[in-house]
Amino acid sequence: MEKNITPVPGFAALLLALGCLGGSIFFVTTNINSDNQSVSPLFWLGIVLFFTAIFLFKGLTVINPNQTVVCTFFGKYVGTAKENGLRFVNPLFKKTRLSLRVNNFESNKLKVNDKMGNPIEIAAVIVWQVSDTYKATFEVTNYTEYVKIQSESAIRHLATTCPYDQMEDAHADITLRDGGEKVTALLESELFERLARSGIVIKEARISHLAYAPEIAGAMLQRQQATAIVAARFKIVEGAVGMVELALEMLSKKDIVHLDEEKKAAMVSNLMVVLCGEKAATPVLNTGTLYQ
Fold this sequence. Notes:
Layout lengths: L3 E2 L2 E2 L1 H20 L10 H19 E4 L3 E7 L2 E6 L3 E4 L5 E6 L3 E4 L3 E4 L5 E12 L2 H6 L4 H19 L19 H15 L4 E13 L1 H40 L7 H16 L16
Parallel strand pairs: 1-5
Antiparallel strand pairs: 2-6, 3-6, 4-5, 4-7, 8-10, 9-10, 10-11
């Protein structure tokens, strides 16, 4: 589990390191004997101060906003430093930097079969962030690559559990094309389950590309067009029947003209042709009697 540590401010250590470095230079340069027969103790003090300065400089680290430093001591996890600014940590610690900034990427266009076995192309935009630095550092080898691979795996699994649309499965509760927020919730849940072990939290996940695969796109387009034409024709016929019924009812109610069953059938036929035809009808006028 992640454990937070609070390093001491680094400015005092920086000043001390600079003082040690300056003292080292002073003692070394002023206590070297030209005859090389003896070495002053202050010379060795300068050497000690020099290595002390190096030791202090090595412990200084700068932590930027939304950035952390994971510290280990000879393979043992010590903790994670998150406080920003110049900080001083044990120079013997191994420091690994991790970003806590929000990241996002768009997956490749994946070719996969939907629930009904139709090949489709699907892609998604994933927004994620590191929430547990211990898991991100030690539970997986490369957490960024892990996020990418597991996200694509989750997208594939989502596509195989839902049909593309209700044309394939009329009783489907959720479809990829019309699912909307339900599909988003399923994808986010799948990603959360897969990425929890790596200390990654999903901020948002949405499908960015969805289409039939090229080899069946033409056939599916024709099918959609045929379905749309049938639906439109159904509405036209339904409206035409209502208009014919209304016309016969009004003619009878207002006693404008009396029609027998044969003439009613002819009138219905003519009105249906006029109302349901794709082109404007060209009428033929009868200049004789009604029964000629």
